[in-house]
UniProtKB/TrEMBL annotation:
One protein family per Pfam: Abhydrolase_1
Family in the record: Belongs to the peptidase S33 family.
Protein name: Proline iminopeptidase
Record keyword Hydrolase present: yes
UniProt entry tagged with the keyword Hydrolase: yes
Origin organism lineage: Bacteria, Pseudomonadati, Bacteroidota, Sphingobacteriia, Sphingobacteriales
One of the record's GO cellular component terms: membrane
Domain AB hydrolase-1: 49-288
Gene Ontology biological process terms from the UniProt entry: proteolysis
Keywords recorded for this protein, A-Z: Hydrolase
GO-annotated molecular function: peptidase activity
Source organism, top-level taxon: Bacteria
Length: 303
């Protein structure tokens, strides 16, 4: 991994991140292309597959930082995407969006569910939306928690926020994704030099330190992160496609989410969408846990 790839892995992680009884089942699901995915099912009620962000993060920090409070009413399935966390790197070298969506469906089949809830955080929104577009008959409801549906829009928002915070003038390029990434990395470096990198996730450095402590245990070599930014499908703006989704959708957004963008959700046009704004940053599941869980349960009870 070269220097630029290493920087991307470290800096973009912030974009970045029904079985009865309280059973906890760790498992490894081998996909049809020979890749082992870490999956864990725990809780009560209908199945909800959690789709983590990054790109290249893992599900453990969400679960450990109070996300498991959802298990009282949901059978949560935590999985690490291929090339992420405790899962293997892709055995076939395939990290396409189509492949990632197929992995989610294999997990659904693995647990024998006709329909599932999908809960996506951050970058995971792109995977969840595309699954819902391709398999609407297999989704009970879609939960987008601090989710982006346009990486370009969210990265541009981050650059603008850094400029406002540091009084800098990093210019947002209007050309290639490579130019955008280069500018973004420079802006993030400047933010880190001021010891303000945590601001992208939360106004509380203590909260971000808790996330970092768990993420320091991540055993991955971040193979997905090494490939994702060179795949055009992940750079597409999926916000116009939200008009095609007829499923119930819960959008949980942070009023101070500088990672995705405080107003990014305004680009969504779901027919059956419900927005819940919470006074917090990018990790609402932890820093505003009670409100976060109540929002999810209200949504599910409504369905």
């Amino acid at each position: 991994m070269n220097r630029i790839q290493s920087s991307i892995v470290l800096l973009l992680i912030c974009i970045g991140m029904g079985v009865q009884g309280q059973s906890r089942m760790n498992d490894y699901l081998t996909t049809d292309d020979g890749t082992k995915l870490f999956v864990k099912k725990s809780g009560n009620g209908p199945i909800c597959i959690f789709i983590h962000g990054g790109p290249g993060a893992w599900s453990k920090s969400f679960e450990r930082l109070k996300g498991d409070g959802l298990e009282t009413n949901l059978s949560m399935v935590y999985y690490d995407q291929r090339g992420c966390g405790r899962s293997q790197k892709s055995a076939s070298g395939d990290y396409s969006l189509e492949r990632m969506v197929k992995d989610i469906d294999l997990i659904r089949k693995h647990y024998g569910a006709a329909k599932v809830y999908l809960m996506a955080h951050s970058f995971g929104g792109i995977l969840a939306l595309n699954y819902a577009l391709n398999h609407p008959d297999r989704v009970e409801g879609l939960i987008l928690a601090n989710s982006t549906l346009s990486m370009r829009n969210s990265l541009e928002g981050q650059i603008n926020y850094i400029n406002s915070l540091l009084k800098t003038d990093f210019a947002v390029p209007d050309s290639t994704s490579g130019s955008l990434m280069s500018t973004f990395l420079k802006a993030k470096k400047a933010l880190s030099q001021k010891d303000l990198g945590y601001k992208m996730l939360s106004d509380s450095k203590t909260n971000v330190d808790q996330v970092d402590e768990i993420d320091s245990q991540n055993p991955s070599d971040y193979d997905f992160s090494k490939h994702v930014f060179s795949i055009d499908d992940y750079w597409q703006d999926y916000t116009p496609m939200t008009k095609q989704v007829k499923l119930p959708v819960l959008i949980i957004t942070g009023e101070k989410d500088h990672s995705i963008g405080e107003n990014h959700y305004l680009l969504f046009h779901f027919i059956n969408g419900n927005v819940r704004k919470i006074n917090g940053g990018h990790i609402l599941y932890y820093e505003k846990n009670e409100e976060f869980i109540r929002s999810v349960f209200d949504f599910i009870n409504g369905i």
